[in-house]
Amino acid sequence: MRAIVLHRHGPIADMTYETGFTDPTPQPGDVIVRMKACALNYHDIFTIRSMPGIKITMPRIVGLDLAGEVAEVGLDVTGWKVGDRVIVDPVDRKRGGLTGETFDGGMAEYVRLGAHQLLPLPDDVGFDTAAALPCAYGTAYRMMLTRGAVKAGEKVLILGASGGVGTCCVQLAKLVGAEVAVCASSARKLERLRALGADHLIDYTAEDFMAASHRVFGRPRVWSGPGGADGADVVVNFTGGDTWVRSIRCLRRQGRLLTCGATAGFNPQEDIRYIWTFEQNIMGSNGWTQEDILALLDLVRQGKLDPCIDQRFKLADGLAALHALEQRTITGKIIVEP
Known about the structure:
Blueprint: E1 3-5, E2 16-18, E3 30-39, H1 42-49, E4 65-73, E5 85-88, E6 110-114, E7 118-120, H2 127-131, H3 133-147, E8 155-158, H4 164-175, E9 179-184, H5 187-195, E10 200-203, H6 209-217, E11 232-236, H7 244-248, E12 251-259, H8 272-277, E13 281-284, H9 290-301, E14 309-314, H10 318-326, E15 333-337
Helix pairs in contact: 3-4, 3-9
C-alpha cells in the first residue's frame, strides 16, 4: 500500500512516501479501515521530532485522526462489517496507546485499529469533516464545555486561536453566546477567525496581547463588580512559555484559565500572587472521550458546528502537508486524502 513512513526521528524531509509498504492484517479484535480522510495535528510533528519520555517503534506511520470505511474485519469482532462508514477514536483505551504514535496512523491507504476505537459515521457527515473532529475538536470541546463550562455572556480570550484546537474554541465559545477575543499572528488568520465569529482581533506580533486584552475587556480589579469591564472571565492558553504570566494578568477576579497543553514550553515563569489575590481558577483538560466525539458529531449534524479546513493534500503529497503544518501558516485543519 501507499504510506508516509517515519524511519527515524528528525526532520520531515527524512520521511519517505512509499508505494509498496506492507498491507496491515487484522489480529483478533481488530479491523482494517480504508482511509478516506486523515486530519493532521501538531502532535504528529512532535512524534516525528521525538517527544521526551515517549519511545515508539520504527518504522511508523503518523496521523492521529482519520475517517474511512471498514475494509476487513478480524476474528472476534461483532457490530462492524465491510463497507461501514466510521470515525476513529485515536486513543486505544484497551491496549493503551495512540494511533499514529504507538500504532500506525492515518497517513496510509489502510490502517489496523482496535474495533473498540470505531464510532459510526452518519451518511450526512463527510469523511473530511469527521476526520477533523477527534483530537483537536475533541480536546477543545472537553476543555471549553465539559471542563471549562463556558457560558453565555462571558468574556473569553483565546491564545493560539488559529490552529485546530483554537478554531474550535472560537466556534464553541460563540455557540454558547460568549464574547470572544482571539490572538493570531497575521491579518489572514485574523480574518478567518472573524469569519468564525470572533468579536475582537488581536495581532500579537503588533500589540502585546495582555495590553490588548486590558483594552478590550478591561484591566482586572481585585474587587470586581458583576458585568464590569474588569478582565476576561476565561483565558484559553495551551501555549505556556512566556505567555503564561501575562495570561493570568488578563483574568478578572475568580476567572478561569483553561489549558490543554504547552506548545511553547511546559515550565513557564509563574507569579502566584495573581492566583491568590484574584482567586483565580487554573483548570487543566486532558484529551477527549468518545462521548465528546459523539457530541461534536451531533453539533455538526445540527448545522451548529463546521470544522475549519484550510488546506487539502493527496497522500502522495503528504510530506508537503506536514511541512505546511510545521510552518504554522494555516488556520484550522489540514486534510490528507487518498
